[in-house]
C-alpha cells in the first residue's frame, strides 16, 4: 500500500490501537476517542479526558492525529518496518455502514448544508455537467438563495461518470471503504457497524481495555436512517442504481451488507 493511501489509519502508541476512520460512519466521535487515548491534543496544557469536550474543528484537523502516512517524517527509512510491526501487534478496528445510506449521508452533509469548500470543489462542476448551468454564483450562500442546488440525481451521475475518477480519486466522504482502509491487506481485529454503534462501541472499548478511561459519546439524533433509502432512490433510474451497486459492491460484500434487492429490481 503506498504511503499516501495510509492517511486514514490513526495510531495510538500509548494503548497499541490503530483506527481506520471512514467519513460518515461516526468518525468524528471515534477520532475524539483516539485524541483522548493518545493524548495528542491539549486543553490549556492538560490532555482532554472527555471526548465531547474536543471542538469539532480540532477533531478534523489532520495535524491533530498521528496517521501512518506521517511515519516516514518521524522514522525515515525505518518507517515501513515499524508499520509492519505495529500492524501485527496493535489492535486494529474500523466502523462501517450500509454503503448506499453512507452516500445519502454524505450528500446531506456536504450538499444540502451550505459548505463553501464542497460547493466550489464539487457542486459547481456537477451543476455545470449534469444540470446544464453555464454560469453559477461563486459563493454557496448566493447559490442557495438563487436556488442553485445539486440534486441527489446529479450526485449519483457524478459518481457514475468515468471522467470523475480520471480527474482525481473519489473524495473520502464517498470513496469506497475498501479503498480507504484496505481490509484485504490489513487484518482488522474488530469491524463495528453504525447500525449497532452503541453496543459495538461498548464492546470495543472493553476489548481495547480502555473502558475505565472513557465512554463513547451518545448517538446523534439526526442520523440518516436506513429506512429512507427507497425515498432517496425513488427518482434514480434503475440502470443507474444497478451501476451504483456495482461501484460499491465490494463494500456490501466485504462487510456483510445484503444486496438491496428492493432498489435493484423493477
H/E topology pattern: EEHEEHHHEHHHHHHEHHHH
What is the subunit organization of this protein? single chain
Overall pLDDT score: 95
| Spatial sequence of strands, sheet with the most strands | 1-2-5-6
**What overall geometry do the principal axes of the alpha carbons give?**
globular
Summarize the structure.
With 266 residues, the chain is an alpha/beta fold. The protein has a domain at 3-97 and 173-208. The protein is 47% helix and 8% strand.
Word description of this protein:
With 266 residues, the protein is of the alpha/beta class. It has a domain at 3-97 and 173-208. It is 47% helix and 8% strand. It is built from 14 helices and 6 strands. The chain has helices at residues 27-38, 56-59, 71-75, 79-89, 99-112, 116-130, 140-145, 152-160, 162-167, 177-181, 197-207, 229-233, 238-254, 261-264; strands spanning 9-12, 17-20, 42-43, 46-47, 91-96, 190-193. Helix 8 (152-160) crosses helix 13 (238-254). The longest helix has 17 residues, at 238-254. 29% of the residues are buried. Its EC number is 2.8.2.-.
Show the helix and strand layout.
Layout: E1 9-12, E2 17-20, H1 27-38, E3 42-43, E4 46-47, H2 56-59, H3 71-75, H4 79-89, E5 91-96, H5 99-112, H6 116-130, H7 140-145, H8 152-160, H9 162-167, H10 177-181, E6 190-193, H11 197-207, H12 229-233, H13 238-254, H14 261-264
Parallel strand pairs: 2-5, 5-6
Antiparallel strand pairs: 1-2, 3-4
Helix pairs in contact: 8-13
